[in-house]
Amino acid sequence: MPHPIMFDDADPNLGSVREIALALPDATEVVAHGRPTFRCGKMFANYGGGLKGGKVRYDQSVLFIPDEADKPALEEDPRFYVPAYYGPFGWLGLILDDATDWDEVAELLDASYRHVAPKRSLAKLDPTAP
Q: Which InterPro entries does this chain map to (predicted)?
């Protein structure tokens, strides 16, 4: 039995996340476990998540892999949370709302992408990279 769809294609926050994520070289979108995921070989972002136990959901959020140096500060910020399933692997979630700084989201997704993208894709992002 497939997972139920847990997003609305008309969600403007999802539209913004899609625009940012799919602008990265070779990025694709795949619906997995009922939610949009963004990949470049491996997954670098997931739209929507929740806390362990399933009682608190953040359907308008984006999950990502933070840079280790930034992670402690992000964990102190109440806009961020440690998502179920992904949290033990170092992922964080950012709750999206009307005050979302989309430049910040772009930076977070760029950093997450750089964790998983193959060298050939990174070379397209940074033409000066070796």
A: YjbR-like_sf, YjbR/MT2646/Rv2570-like
